[in-house]
Amino acid sequence: MGLLSFLFAASARSQVDFQQVEYSPRATDFKFVAAPDAKRVVLNIYDSGAGGRLLKSKKMKLDKLSQQWKVRVKGNLAGTFYTINVLKDGKWYGETPGVFAQAVGINGQRGAIISLDDTDPVGWNVDKRPALASPSDLVIYEMHHRDFSVSPTSSIKNKGKFLALTEPRAISHLTTLGINAVHILPSFDYASVDESQLEKPQYNWGYDPLNYNVPEGSYSTDPADPKCRINEFKQMVQALHKAGIRVILDVVYNHTFDIEGSAFQRTWPDYYYRKTADGQYSNGSGCGNETASDKAWMRKFIIESVKYWANEYHIDGFRFDLMAVHDIETMNLVRKELDKIDPSIFIYGEGWSAGSCAYPEDKLAFKANVTEMPCIAAFSDEIRDALRGPWNDDSQGAFIVGLKDNEESLKYGIAGCIDHPQIDMTKVNYSKKAWAKEPQQAIAYVSCHDDMCLVDRLKASKKGITEAELIRLDLLAQTAVFTSQGIPFMLSGEEMLRTKQGVHNSYNSPDAINQLDWDNLKRYPQVFNYYKGLISMRRNHPAFRLGSADLVRKHLEFLPTSDCLVAFRINGSPKGDTWKNITVVLNSADHPQSVSIPQGKYTVVCCDGIINENGIETIETDQIEVDPQTAIIMWNVE
Length: 638
Ligand code: CA
What we know:
- This protein is α/β, with parallel strands linked by helices.
- Helix 8 packs across helix 9, helix 10 packs across helix 11 (467-482) and helix 11 (467-482) packs parallel to helix 14.
- The radius of gyration is 26 Å and the shape is elongated.
């Protein structure tokens, strides 16, 4: 890599204001945001990402205008590593690569001096986001790199690695299933897996952020090579994009792994965290700390970080962990800045926190405040818990195990959490007021990485459930999700009837608990085929994804039903759908139930756990009887 290409690298890539390491073969300029009232800030240069030799130390100088500490180091630093150390109030806060390291050594303790140009796979310059006309067209598949590929049954070579998602086995599984977006669990550099001990069994979801702007080392084939993880992450994005699959990153700006060791604390002590009135660290994340998005540099950090992932890694969407720890203004600014890059970049998050935050609730990005955040979505715990039961009691079931009084919450979820004249909000489980202005602001789901997976929840909430019954109820639950006007979201492995052996919080459970058993595809082909059928039907029929609250109110009509029964029609052929008056009936009772429908001739496309878009049978009736624990979907031929 010669001088010219480094210079071009600097000019072609979008600049990050926050922290810069500007390399040239003659000298490197370091610019870091650090405490303006620090007594000293020292830069260290090492020959290795861990251990090794200290090559030199330099005092940095504060540039008051840019609020950055700066120093120029002469000589060719390519291939070396750096840290800074801040002295404030008589205390050295400890070495850190800074808050915005773009490349790091093993275990993320030191920044690395590389050219990002060296990390681009062949053809990266022509990599493109798969087309997306509307966010309501998304079908999201939430996955963990290790869960997905680590089992010997996966036939995937790069087990637990970013590269797994470049292999034909993985890609063809996803494209056959029909999803068009993967939501990857935290894939930035996190703290809890020791990257120097990968021969030992280690597992973590990754909600313990270390370096927010570098891929995680343990998912690369060589965590000691700073370029490797960046290159392999990009190869993954490129392969998924070629297959028409978008990549959504799970981002966890609301807290850090710890306070003392974090780059935030080590560069600007106490600035980035919220404190309570009595001076304690606030803990709205439930993880011991909470960041302060309302403060100028923290807000800027979040915005620059998502922009960096969108520009440098071509990321297509962001899922904000505990979004309600962040303030509304920050979230709207994130939206505004990403719109400038590509308005199809999707943003959603958990519209709750895990404890009370040291900031006014009405200014935080809670689900109830989604109306103030256009084009940002939140998870609907209403539909999730209406289907499977409450989050705080695994043994308690709901609609799918045949318990009544969940129908209204389910209907609310099916309508996409918007105001709908037929939904009685006084009977909805968690919200007394519709919180979504548009249906694509609601994520419809029945399970995610948190809590039990669907199979385990069914076993826990219905004593003595048989395997046949479990499959029926599993398919029934997902029928509600994939026919919802919200954005459907599924946990990876549900299509293989995954189990986590009853483990509720499997964040650091061994592979034996978390891994998918790919042999289940042979054991339960009807499950995969049904999921595939649901997704295909949704993607082929725009009536299931109207994408506008007005259209939902105009076309979606709920039919009168009894307990444990929800039925709706999508009247007419909205958005040019080739089917007319699509009718969906969900019966969770252990006996057949009937629904009155307008007299007509109908083609049944889903019944008794089978989906066939070409039609299973055609019937002429004004009454439809639905078998126990199943769904029927049909449409009006005449
Ligand atoms: Ca790591």
